Amino acid sequence: MAGCGTIDMRIDEARSLQFKTRMTKLIIAALFAGVVGVGAQARPPQTTPPPPPPDNTKVNKDPGLTADQQSQSKADLDLVAKIRQAILADKTLSTNAHNCKVITRDGAVTLRGPVNSAKEKSTVGGIATKIAGAGKVTNVLTVKATK
After folding, report:
1. Beta carbons within 8 Å of 82's beta carbon, 6+ residues apart
2. What's the sign of the alpha-carbon dihedral 64, 69, 75, 79?
3. Rounded Cα gap, residues 76 and 39, in angstroms
4. Residue ranges of domains in the chain
5. Which residues, 6+ apart, have CB-to-CB distance to 75 below 8 Å?
6. Which residues lie below 8 Å from residue 117, measured CB to CB, with a gap of 6+?
7. pLDDT tens for residues 49-64?
8. 61-143: which CATH number, 3.30.390, 3.30.70, 3.30.1340, 1.10.3680?
9. Predicted confidence (pLDDT) per residue in 96-111, tens digit
């Protein structure tokens, strides 16, 4: 029976060793998690706030025709199409100039929106005047401020 006591002792030692091993792993994992957590907290919070959303409400309230006041008569729609095609055909113009608003009402044309330079404003105005006729174009394009 002396042999049974030795086996029981060895089983107890093995269980004790397993317990110690598990506890050691648990402690190491907890310490690692603590270090990682402290490292994550040590970073300063992002201090740069996001830029505010663009707000051109004041610009949109400027007097004059807006795109929703575009006439739906065939003559006015044809005039807009011709002017728009001519503007887009001029590859020297910027995307801003290509995207300007061309609004017609009873044959009168209004140009609105930003362009990159005074030269572009003049060029787009000249294209519209050539197609619509002298005295029929109101050029309220705005030159974007350079950064």
Report:
1. 131
2. positive
3. 66
4. 1-42, 61-143
5. 107
6. 143
7. 776 666 555 555 556 6
8. 3.30.1340
9. 999 999 999 999 999 9
